[in-house]
C-alpha cells in the first residue's frame, strides 16, 4: 500500500484499488460532477456510486470531462431493492451503464440483502459471464445472508461492501469473508462524522500528526479493508488520499479495535431484508 494506485487482487484476479471515492447522498448534479472530477484530478482511480444515489449520470459526465481514460478507472454501481429479481436486475444494469456513459462496470453489487437476492445474483452471474461486468459482489450482507446466497451461487462474490468503522468491526464477518476470499469494503468509514468525537482517535491524531480521518482510513487499509470516504470539499478530498506516508503501530491498531461496540450509524441489514421494498435510506 504505497500510494493511491495501490490495489488488492480479488478472488477472480481483478485489481481493485484500496482507496475509493464515495458519492452517497451527493445528488446535486454540479456538485457531483465537480467533486468526482476533483477526486480523479488528485489521483483517485476508484469511483463508487449506485442507482439509488440518483447521481450515475453526473458521475458519468465527470468521468468523461476529467480526461482520465475509462480503462484507468475502477467504476462501481449497485442494483437497488426495487430492481431485484432476474429480469429486473438485467434491465437495471442496462439503465445504469447508459446513465454512466459506459459499456461495462468494474464491479456491480447487490445493494442490500433481499428475499429475491438469489435471483438477482443469477442475473449478475450472467452479466459477469458475458464480460459486461469485471467483478460482482454484494453490499450489506451478513454471514447469514452470505451463507444463503452461497447455497445456490455458481460464483462466489468478489466483494462485500458493508458499514465498517472502529465502532462496528464485525469480526465474525471479517473471518467469514477471509475464509471465502471475499474482499471486505467499508462504507461510512468515518461514521458520518461521528468518528471525530472519539477521544482515542483525537489522541492518535496528535501522536501521528495526522487528522482523525487519516488515522481511521489508514486503520481500514491496515485491516485489509477497502475504503471509500466521501467528501465534496477539495481540501478534504485530497486530505483523504494522504494516508500512504505513515503506518499505525500494532499497539495502536489494537487500541482502535478495542473501540468496537457493534454500533451502527446506518440501517441494520436484517431489518432491511425483512421489509426491503419500503426501505429508502
Based on CA atoms alone, the radius of gyration comes out at: 18 Å
Distance between the termini: 33 Å
Strand order of the largest sheet: 3-4-5-6-7-8-9-10
What is the domain tally?
A: 1
Q: List the total number of helices.
A: 11
Supply the CATH superfamily name: NADP-dependent oxidoreductase domain
- What is the makeup of the main sheet? 8 strands, parallel
- Which class of secondary structure composition applies to the elements? alpha/beta
- Low-confidence spans: pLDDT under 50, at least 5 residues? none
Strand content: 5-15%
Overall number of strands:
10
The coarse overall form would be: globular
Give helix % range.
25-40%
Query: What is the C-level CATH assignment?
Result: Alpha Beta
List the helices and strands and how they pair.
Blueprint: E1 7-9, E2 15-17, E3 21-22, H1 29-42, E4 46-48, H2 56-66, E5 74-79, H3 86-100, E6 107-110, H4 117-129, E7 136-139, H5 143-150, E8 159-163, H6 171-179, E9 183-187, H7 199-208, H8 212-222, E10 226-227, H9 234-239, H10 250-257, H11 269-274
Parallel strand pairs: 3-4, 4-5, 5-6, 6-7, 7-8, 8-9, 9-10
Antiparallel strand pairs: 1-2
Helix pairs in contact: 1-2, 2-3, 3-4, 7-8
Walk me through what this model shows.
The protein is an alpha/beta fold. It has one domain (7-278): NADP-dependent oxidoreductase domain (TIM Barrel). The chain has helices spanning 29-42, 56-66, 86-100, 117-129, 143-150, 171-179, 199-208, 212-222, 234-239, 250-257, 269-274, and strands at residues 7-9, 15-17, 21-22, 46-48, 74-79, 107-110, 136-139, 159-163, 183-187, 226-227. The strands form 2 sheets. The protein has an 8-stranded parallel sheet. Strands 1-2 form a two-stranded antiparallel ribbon. Helix 2 runs parallel beside helix 3. The mean pLDDT is 97.
Amino acid at each position: 500500500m504505497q500510494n493511491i494506485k495501490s490495489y488488492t487482487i480479488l478472488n477472480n484476479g481483478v485489481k481493485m484499488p484500496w482507496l475509493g471515492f464515495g458519492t452517497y447522498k451527493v445528488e446535486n448534479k454540479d456538485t457531483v460532477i465537480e467533486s468526482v472530477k476533483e477526486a480523479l484530478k488528485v489521483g483517485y482511480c476508484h469511483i463508487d456510486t449506485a442507482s439509488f444515489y440518483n447521481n450515475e449520470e453526473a458521475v458519468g459526465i465527470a468521468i468523461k470531462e476529467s480526461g482520465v481514460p475509462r480503462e484507468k478507472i475502477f467504476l462501481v454501481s449497485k442494483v437497488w431493492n426495487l430492481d431485484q429479481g432476474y429480469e429486473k436486475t438485467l434491465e437495471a444494469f442496462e439503465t445504469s451503464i447508459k446513465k454512466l456513459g459506459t459499456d461495462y462496470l468494474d464491479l456491480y453489487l447487490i445493494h442490500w440483502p433481499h428475499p429475491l437476492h438469489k435471483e438477482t445474483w443469477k442475473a449478475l452471474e450472467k452479466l459477469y459471464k458475458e464480460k459486461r461486468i469485471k467483478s460482482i459482489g454484494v453490499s450489506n450482507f451478513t454471514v447469514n445472508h452470505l451463507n444463503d446466497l452461497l447455497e445456490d451461487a455458481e460464483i462466489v462474490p468478489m466483494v462485500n461492501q458493508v458499514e465498517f468503522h472502529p465502532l462496528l468491526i464485525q469480526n465474525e464477518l471479517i473471518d467469514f469473508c477471509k475464509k471465502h476470499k471475499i474482499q471486505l469494503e467499508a462504507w461510512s468509514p468515518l461514521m458520518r462524522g461521528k468518528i471525530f468525537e472519539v477521544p482515542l482517535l483525537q489522541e492518535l491524531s496528535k501522536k501521528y500528526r495526522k487528522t482523525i480521518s487519516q488515522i481511521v482510513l489508514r486503520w481500514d487499509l491496515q485491516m485489509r479493508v477497502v475504503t471509500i470516504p466521501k467528501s465534496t470539499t477539495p481540501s478534504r478530498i485530497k486530505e483523504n488520499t494522504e494516508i500512504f506516508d505513515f503506518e499505525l503501530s500494532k499497539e495502536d491498531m489494537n487500541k482502535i479495535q478495542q473501540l468496537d461496540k457493534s454500533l451502527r450509524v446506518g440501517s441494520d441489514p436484517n431489518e432491511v431484508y425483512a421489509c426491503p421494498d419500503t426501505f429508502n435510506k
